[in-house]
Design a protein that fits this description.
Elements (H helix, E strand, L loop, with lengths): L9 H11 L5 H18 L4 H6 L5 H16 L2 E6 L5 H16 L3 E5 L2 H21 L11 E3 L9 H9 L1 H4 L4 H12 L16 H4 L20 H11 L2 E5 H9 L17 E4 L5 H8 L3 E3 H11 L15 H26 L4 E4 L9 H18 L3 H26 L5 E8 L5 E8 L3 H9 L5 E5 L8 H7 L6 E5 L5 H4 E6 L14 H13 L5 E4 L3 H18 L3 E3 L6 H11 L3 E4 L16 E4 L10 H12 L4 H18 L10 E5 L3 H4 L3 H5 L8 E3 L8 H9 L1
């Protein structure tokens, strides 16, 4: 997925470059100190936020805002951990808007979750605007513009839609043409042109012919009047704040979309960046600084060129019978290639690491390379410019697939890990994957050496609240760091219970005693009047516990919500919040980002300390790398990652000053293993209660009292 930006024209940039370099003049120093002073005036006790909007003054928020303003002024990286309730969004948005307006720069705000993006758009930015409009000395900042940046594949392109309609008899089987007509009807009503607005959603094989994700969608063919992406691109250029998600941000950085080697800025010239929910940066960046070639994606790409089954595709109108036969041979070769990997490399396993060149026969590459050559000839020979552009675009994608396949088959990069995996509802999709063993060099070049301010913030940046070590692992050794604790009173508002008789995970299967787990989870959730978030580390454990407990919830008239049961993560969280006393079973993604204040989330149950699977290729390769350096993979990798995730999980409970509730831990290793003290030290207080499942009186009064106190 690719997004193009409207960068400042080189001429304009050259004109403005001397101004950017005047940081040492008195005028610039005055402007920078002005940002810091304005930030002090806004956040200080009795400042503009408190007087104008009647918002509570928080010393922690004040300290974060000042440190943020200093980093923005000096164009330097800052890592800042801010506990739950600090109000970190306002602490960086207000200085960012002042800096962007005064210096005519753009601030990119990146988040991991849609929920935080929506909070920034619908709650935090309106607060900023109201503040600026009500304070006369800040009124000029009230006219700021914000834009949401999404992948261009999500936008409808009017030019490509018109072309697809004209060629629909060649591109689509009859039934698929209905979806094209639906898109046409929707295009006359939509304001944004974003695919998620269409109901029912069109199939991928139709949408990819009309979206903006093509070289044919450009300023020569399209304009803001007929293309939603070009319209969004214009809005983007005018915005002071650009909101994006981590996944797209790192995809763009990996694609090399920075403003230039000698130009400061991460994506746009002279931009500065905020990464909220920054504890996920390493994980997301690792996924995007590697390769992913899938059987499904390659098959779909080839069949867009020509589908031999129904005779549709671009070569239905272009090329020769020989060209169409070449596509058919490539499709057959690709199917045989991925089937062979599934049978001979994966077998019954879902994931296998590959180590050396020649791990599988490269018979597919010659077929694809011949097709690439033929498509190049067709592009040169065709007189139909629009079809020629589409062929050129598909050829470029095929070239990228060839390069990725060659890299994967040759295990070409010594600093990367390679593996194959099986996915899809029936395990029918085979993927070739690569990822960097150490992501720090990529982040160092893509973020921290761009001569601009980069703020990374989260409630949990360090495993042991060691923010400096976290910065070093991401390649920002010289970054400034800081932290403030949560202002919430956890000692009075949170009870903690730890099971002393929970069986340790099996040394062979890695699974907990399911009978104990199912019984304990059912009892803890049903003995509690509010809602419970139950966090698992294994899908298999979660599904088995859900199967065993489903009837108990039905008998009690309590709703059971399960990740992977159909509804999206957002839908499940919304249903959980509205139910009031439901139990929500979730795994990996539910340990972070769930924000449900009030009694609907009155208990968080940690079924198992969240250690990552050490046999995953990335964990395995990183462990080997640490051993070669003379270190301990458990102490340097496994334990710190688990501690950060544990902090995130228990942080789901208390989301505002009035929240009360209980943390229940069903893993006795936290008490009996030497590493357990690392987790115990991160509990908001040490006044926890030990319990045994056999003692049925333990739960009722203590838990209810904690909920009602």
């Amino acid at each position: 997925m690719l997004v193009l930006f409207l960068h400042r024209k080189p001429g304009n940039f050259i004109f403005s470059f001397p101004l950017i370099r005047l940081n040492e003049t008195f005028g610039e120093i005055h402007a920078e100190s002005g940002l810091i002073q304005k930030t002090r005036d806004i956040f200080a006790p009795g400042g503009h936020l408190a007087r104008t909007l009647n918002l509570e003054s928080r010393p922690e928020q004040d300290r974060m805002a000042i440190r943020t303003a200093e980093a923005f002024s000096a164009d330097r990286p800052l890592f800042f951990e801010a506990g739950t309730g600090v109000g970190k969004s306002l602490a960086y948005l207000i200085p960012a808007l002042i800096q962007a307006t005064d210096r005519e720069r753009q601030c990119i705000v990146s988040t991991k979750t849609i929920a935080l993006q929506e909070q920034i758009q619908r709650k935090d930015l309106p607060i900023c605007r109201t503040l600026f409009e009500k304070v006369p000395t800040l009124s000029k900042y009230g006219n700021f513009k914000a834009a949401l940046l999404v992948g261009r594949a999500n936008y409808l392109c009017g030019t490509r839609l018109a072309r697809a309609l004209a060629a629909k008899a060649d591109l689509f089987p009859g039934p698929k043409q209905i979806h094209l007509e639906n898109i046409l009807d929707w295009s006359r009503l939509t304001v944004t042109g974003l695919r998620h607005e269409i109901s029912p959603s069109p199939p991928h094989e139709v949408w990819e012919w009309v979206n903006s994700d093509s070289t044919s969608c450009n300023r020569r063919n399209c304009s803001p009047a007929n293309c939603f992406f070009q319209r969004a691109r214009d809005d983007l250029r005018k915005a002071q704040i650009i909101i994006v998600n981590h996944s797209l941000l790192f995809a763009l950085i990996n694609a090399g979309l920075h403003p230039g080697p000698e130009v400061k800025g991460v994506l746009l010239s002279d931009d500065f960046v905020v990464l909220d929910e920054a504890h996920t940066v390493a994980q997301v960046a690792t996924q995007h600084f590697g390769q992913r070639i899938t059987s499904y994606g390659l098959d779909r790409l080839l069949k867009r060129i020509f589908n031999p089954r129904n005779r549709y595709g671009l070569l239905g109108r272009l090329g020769t019978p020989s060209d169409r036969n070449e596509v058919e041979r490539a499709i057959t070769a690709a199917q045989a290639f991925f089937t062979g990997i599934g049978e001979h490399v994966l077998g019954q396993r879902s994931i296998v690491r590959v180590h050396a060149q020649g791990w599988f026969e490269a018979s597919l590459l010659p077929c694809l390379e011949r097709l690439v050559k033929r498509l190049g000839v067709i592009v040169q020979d065709t007189e139909n410019e629009s079809l020629g552009e589409e062929i050129h675009d598909l050829r470029a994608r095929l070239v990228a697939n060839c390069g990725g396949l060659e890299d994967c088959l040759n295990v070409a990069q010594a600093d990367s890990v390679y593996w194959v995996e099986r996915s899809g509802s029936k395990g029918q999709v085979i993927s070739l994957r690569t990822a960097p063993i150490d992501v720090a060099p990529y982040l160092r070049e893509g973020l921290f050496r761009r001569s601009t301010a980069v703020l990374l913030t989260s409630a949990t940046l360090g495993a042991r609240r060691d923010v400096a070590s976290f910065a070093t692992t991401l390649g920002a050794e010289s970054a400034q760091t800081g932290s403030v604790s949560s202002p919430f009173d956890f000692a009075h508002n949170m009870a903690v219970y730890i099971a002393t008789d929970a069986p340790a995970p099996s040394r062979h299967s890695g699974q907990l005693d399911i009978e104990f787990l199912a019984d304990a989870v059912a009892y803890c959730t049903l003995a509690f009047s509010g809602g419970s978030l139950v966090l698992f580390t294994s899908y298999a454990d979660m599904r088995e516990v859900a199967t065993r407990n489903r009837s108990l919830y039905a008998e009690a008239g309590r709703e059971l919500l399960i990740q992977g049961s159909g509804p999206s993560r957002t839908q499940l969280t919304s249903s959980f919040a509205h139910a009031g006393n439901a139990s929500l079973y979730g795994t990996d993604s539910f340990w972070v980002g769930v924000d449900v204040p009030g009694p609907s989330l009155s208990q968080v149950i940690v079924t198992r300390l969240p250690f990552e699977n050490p046999s995953h290729p990335i964990q395995e390769a990183r462990s080997e790398w640490i051993r070669r350096q003379g270190g301990s993979p458990f102490l340097r990798l496994t334990l710190p990652d688990a501690v950060v995730k544990f902090r995130q999980g228990i942080g789901r409970l208390i989301r505002n000053k009035t929240d009360r509730g209980t943390i229940t831990i069903l893993d006795s290793r936290i008490l009996y293993k030497p590493y357990g003290r690392e987790f115990l030290a991160l509990l908001p207080h040490q006044n926890f209660t030990r319990f045994k499942r056999a003692d049925r009186d333990w739960a009722f009064q203590p838990l209810e009292a904690a909920s009602a106190s």
